[in-house]
């Protein structure tokens, strides 16, 4: 028996990074997995790789910024596997050229990021919940971000959209808990996925490493295993929560590094 045996999972943005890790882990623990992505070839490759190893998976195109496309992916899942009991709303992105500080952010980009990062969670949940109600329950998992819990110099829309996802998680959990539908979120810190490699110059990665309590960066599987836990019945009394998977980056006093430097100076080290 796998940890999510016979659950039917739709993973959004499953062709790469965190979504790919979650898709692989869910399938290997017995779920029937639909991997949805803008990059449908990548999603198909991932599903094919799982099938060759004897697991149950298939792929479907998804544009998370488009309501009809989300509906199509959910309908595809239900037609293929009869229901949907796990929805992993994982798609999310930013744009370092346009998602800037409040004075300079591109307002069209604000709208696009709100649609792709936050509204997609609302829409996916809206169309998956009736199937979960019919099935007697389900688990919705959302990817938010530590960027949704603190201010920063740029990525205003990303941070605001991820904060929206974290709080929407509680609304969904509160509204459908009595239907045995749980909703939780995972908030990654810096995770070394293709997107992070693309967006983060080495110097920025080093800044993250300096503030992590742990001596290494996060990997996609660190989030994947958290999603697996939240999808499984092992977490059946957990709902409305955001689990922060961030290497202890945010647990210290923000001024700790400067304080350490000050101590070293006064102690003559
Ligand atoms: N990697 C990190 O450090 C980090 C930190 C915090 C939060 N996150 C969040 O984790 C999630 C996954 O990030 P990742 O690092 O694995 O990214 P990634 O780029 O490696 O994977 C994202 C996947 O989503 C797909 N995608 C992008 N836009 C899409 C759209 N509109 N419709 C459908 N598919 C689309 C991409 O094709 C890609 O396969 C995102 O929500 C991101 O905001 C990541």
Describe the structure.
The protein has 269 residues and is α/β, with parallel strands linked by helices. The protein has a single domain (8-266), classed as Rossmann fold (3-Layer(aba) Sandwich). Helix content is 48%, strand content 14%. It has a seven-stranded parallel beta sheet with strand order 3-2-1-4-5-6-7, with helices on both faces. β2 (32-37), α2 (40-52) and β3 form a beta-alpha-beta unit. α1 crosses α8. The termini are far apart. The mean pLDDT is 96. Nicotinamide-adenine-dinucleotide (NAD) binds at residues 13, 15-19, 37-39, 42, 62-65, 90-93, 116, 143, 145, 188, 190-191, 193-196.
Defining key terms:
single chain; 269 residues; alpha/beta; Rossmann fold; 9 helices; 14% strand; globular; binds nicotinamide-adenine-dinucleotide
């Amino acid at each position: 028996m796998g940890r999510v045996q016979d659950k039917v999972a739709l993973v959004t943005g499953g062709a790469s990074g965190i979504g790919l890790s979650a898709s692989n882990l869910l399938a290997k623990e017995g779920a029937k997995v639909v991997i949805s992505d803008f990059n449908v070839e990548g999603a198909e490759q991932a599903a094919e790789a799982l099938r060759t190893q004897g697991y149950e998976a298939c792929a479907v195109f998804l544009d998370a910024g488009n309501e009809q496309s989300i509906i199509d992916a959910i309908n595809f899942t239900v037609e293929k596997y009869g229901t949907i009991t796990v929805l992993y709303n994982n798609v999310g992105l930013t744009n370092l050229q346009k998602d800037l500080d409040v004075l300079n952010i591109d307002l069209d980009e604000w709208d696009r990021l709100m649609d792709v990062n936050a509204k997609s969670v609302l829409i996916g949940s809206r169309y998956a919940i009736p199937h979960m109600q019919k099935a007697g329950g389900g688990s919705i998992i959302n990817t938010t971000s530590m960027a949704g819990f603190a201010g920063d110099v740029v990525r205003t829309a990303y941070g605001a959209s991820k904060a929206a996802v974290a709080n929407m998680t509680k609304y969904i959990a509160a509204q459908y808990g009595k239907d045995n539908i749980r909703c939780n979120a995972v908030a990654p810190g810096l995770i070394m996925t293709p997107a992070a490699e693309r967006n983060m110059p080495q110097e920025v990665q080093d800044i993250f490493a300096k503030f992590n309590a742990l001596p290494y960066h996060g990997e996609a599987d660190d989030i994947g295993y958290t999603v697996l836990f939240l999808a499984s019945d092992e977490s059946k009394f957990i709902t409305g929560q955001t689990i922060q998977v961030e290497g202890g980056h945010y647990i210290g006093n923000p001024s700790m590094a400067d304080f350490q430097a000050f101590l070293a100076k006064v102690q003559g080290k």
